[in-house]
Design brief:
By secondary structure, the protein is mostly helical. Helices cover 80% and strands 2% of the residues. It has 14 helices and 2 strands; from the N terminus they run βααβαααααααααααα. A two-stranded parallel ribbon has the order 1-2. α1 packs parallel to α3, α5 runs antiparallel to α6 and α9 packs parallel to α11. The longest helix is centred in the C-terminal third of the chain and has 19 residues.
Length: 239
């Protein structure tokens, strides 16, 4: 597989895609993106750059269609492009973007789809619009789909790592703690990831919930992730 490392080359492909779109329509644009980017080895940062550039000239009312077709290819890079474009739509279309992200996550049916889209859409929404996003995440926690529940932990990891305020980090910890009885391995990894990150960056939150964490009802896998996070906090402080 050809590897692409140049932003200049990405710009050239995008310019070709734009010209094809203007002259022949959306289908021609999608062919250029598929052949020029998705079938090549392109880093996630370069794909995010491409998504930002595309969002500048693809009209808002056509963007969802373009994302749907790209994601339908099931190429890993398509989820980065779609995730980034949905992220850019969050200020105006927060709920719609989260709903579409969840549809991509369920349809993708792979852990990496959950993590790629979850971080870029739900995680960024939590970081930038916590008061609006947290109620949506609480609602998603009731879903039966394992990927939707997993993405709550993924979103928490992303937002806390990016400096989500302690107030909202604590709210998210309570939500993760309520999911600590999970038995599915994919859910456990996502929820545990979020809990571990909170423990690393906000050990005081963990101490406030120590009694609940130590209850028999709280599974050992959850407590183990907390311990790992606290140990990483100690290591970071010692450096």
């Amino acid at each position: 597989m050809e590897k692409m490392t140049s932003k200049v080359r990405v710009r050239e492909i995008l310019e070709q895609a734009k010209q094809s779109w203007e002259q022949q329509g959306q289908d021609a644009l999608l062919v250029v993106i598929f052949e020029g980017l998705l079938k090549k080895k392109v880093s996630f940062p370069l794909l995010e750059f491409a998504a930002k550039e595309m969002a500048l000239w693809i009209p808002e009312d056509e963007q969802l269609y373009v994302m749907d077709i790209l994601v339908a290819t099931k190429e890993m890079g398509s989820y980065v492009l779609a995730g980034m474009m949905l992220q850019l739509r969050l200020p105006l279309y927060l709920e719609e973007s989260i709903q579409r992200a969840c549809a991509y996550i369920v349809g993708g049916d792979q852990w990496y789809v959950c993590d790629i889209v979850g971080e870029r859409v739900l995680g960024h929404a939590l970081l930038t619009y916590p008061e609006k996003t947290i109620p949506l995440l609480k609602h998603l926690a009731q879903y039966s789909d394992k990927w939707i529940v997993r993405t709550i932990g993924v979103a928490t990891h992303y937002a806390v790592k990016k400096d989500l305020s302690p107030k909202f980090a604590e709210t998210m910890f309570r939500l993760l703690l309520s999911l600590s009885d999970a038995t599915d391995s994919h859910i456990k990894k996502g929820i545990g990831w979020g809990a571990k990150t909170i423990a690393k960056f906000h050990p005081a939150i963990i101490e406030r919930y120590r009694k609940q964490i130590d209850l028999r009802e709280t599974k050992q896998w959850f407590r183990t992730k907390i311990t790992i996070g606290l140990n990483r906090n100690k290591v970071a402080k010692s450096l």
